[in-house]
Amino acid sequence: MLRAFDVASSTAGTILRLGAGLSVGALGARPEQPLVLYEFESCPYCRRVREALSILDLEAEIRPCPKGGHRFRDELIARGGKAQFPYLIDPGTGKEMYESADIVDYLFSRYGAGPAPALLQGSLPIAAGSLASALRLGKGTQAEPSRAPEQLLELWSFEASPFCRIVRERLCRLELPYRLHNVAKGSPGRDAFVERSGRMQVPYLADPNTSTELFESADIVAYLAGTYGA
Ligand SMILES: N[C@@H](CCC(=O)N[C@@H](CS)C(=O)NCC(=O)O)C(=O)O
Fold first, then answer.
1. Which of 63, 85, 105 to mutate to test ligand 1, by most ligand atoms within 8 A of the CB atom?
2. The pTM is what?
3. How many CB atoms sit inside 10 A of residue 216's CB?
4. Mean pLDDT to the nearest integer, 122-147
């Protein structure tokens, strides 16, 4: 029953956002180095940026900053001067910035082939994203005690997937940093992913710390809680 509500409320969030981040759009140049994003899952401004990453088929190192957490929040305050999310770093160009609208514009101008779609612009994505997060009853908001991994975890995902969201929420709450491989519909990265994992299904987690790789959101969530939850 709980699981059914979990999936239904996550799916409702995707519908509220009209499927943003389901498919890739027109792509431009690729980053020289992976992007870095400080964010937390339930933040509607962060969601808008994650949607852009999926549409533009961009990978990023995610540094989760849930409320009450310190692992990356403190790092961001030291770096950028304030606890405001999202914050993007593009190591290949040296650009760093707050403000989701500016980040989305930057990503589309640098790595897209035209302006950001209307779906990501203005206040509507923020209103709909806030409602979507409310339906999730605050999951992906508050930090939980956890052990820090030595090496980055890796997650194959795309923003609109209800099952991927459930996993990203848990990674967020446990403040577990990960390399986000976006493989939305139409992603050129899908072939390489299938070659590695054996089938086209996300979420898929790889944890180099324990040499574990697994499908299935419920199994991944249980694995993360059991391995890194304190
Ligand atoms: N105008 C900013 C607003 C960002 C914003 O208000 N983010 C909230 C989270 S949704 C925040 O950083 N709150 C501080 C905190 O969580 O401690 C943007 O579009 O990026």
1. 85
2. 0.95
3. 15
4. 95
